[in-house]
Automatic annotation (TrEMBL):
Residues making up the signal peptide according to the UniProt record: 1-21
Record-linked SUPFAM superfamilies: EF-hand (SSF47473)
Native source organism of the sequence: Salinimicrobium tongyeongense
Keyword Signal carried by entry: yes
Gene3D superfamilies: EF-hand
Pfam families for this protein: EF-hand_5
Taxon lineage: Bacteria, Pseudomonadati, Bacteroidota, Flavobacteriia, Flavobacteriales
Protein name: EF-hand domain-containing protein
Superkingdom of the organism of origin: Bacteria
């Protein structure tokens, strides 16, 4: 089940803001070397709007997919090459792709995933559905925080330690 957790963002979870540049200790309020759900939520609330791009208070499947795609596209050329794919999979986020191979997504075999190929491959992934726990086709802020925490907590001990934090944070700063 953990191999299905994480996909590109909790993301997907979340890309490219100053929030991610802050270090672990900023969020570890009790200084015990790990984040509990409450500490994590304080940090993660700031990232919700990065994924809710239309600012309607919910993240839909298209927003979720688009933001994850941008997380993998490190050089911002609107394509994901195999190196970017591999680097994305090496993060906790990438665990949601399980055993998916680059070639599974690169259907035209040109060595570059465009957004259409991504969307096609994305449709076979369950990352969005795992986050949308009430199955209303949207991810609200509560679902976002709980599911993101579960994804970041790789060892499933109920806390996000600094190594787990940095694994996702590196992806999210892309």
């Amino acid at each position: 089940m953990k191999t299905m957790k994480g996909i590109l963002f909790a993301m997907c979870s979340i890309l490219g803001t100053g929030v991610y540049a802050q270090d672990f200790d900023t969020f570890d309020a009790d200084l015990d070397g790990r984040l509990n759900q409450t500490e994590f939520t304080e940090r993660n609330n700031d990232t919700y709007n990065d994924w809710d791009t239309n600012r309607d208070g919910n993240i839909d499947n298209a927003e979720f997919s688009d933001r994850a795609y941008r997380g993998f596209d490190q050089n911002r050329d609107d394509f994901i090459d195999e190196n970017e794919w591999d680097e994305g999979l090496d993060t906790g986020i990438g665990e949601s792709f399980g055993d998916d191979e680059y070639s599974t997504f690169d259907t035209n075999r040109d060595g570059r995933l465009d957004s259409d190929e991504w969307d096609e491959g994305w449709n076979n992934n369950t990352w969005f559905e795992r986050y949308d726990t009430n199955q209303d086709e949207y991810i609200d802020n509560d679902e976002w925080n709980i599911s993101s925490f579960d994804d970041w907590d790789i060892n499933e001990d109920g806390f996000v330690d600094e190594n787990e934090f940095n694994d996702y944070d590196a992806f999210n700063r892309r």
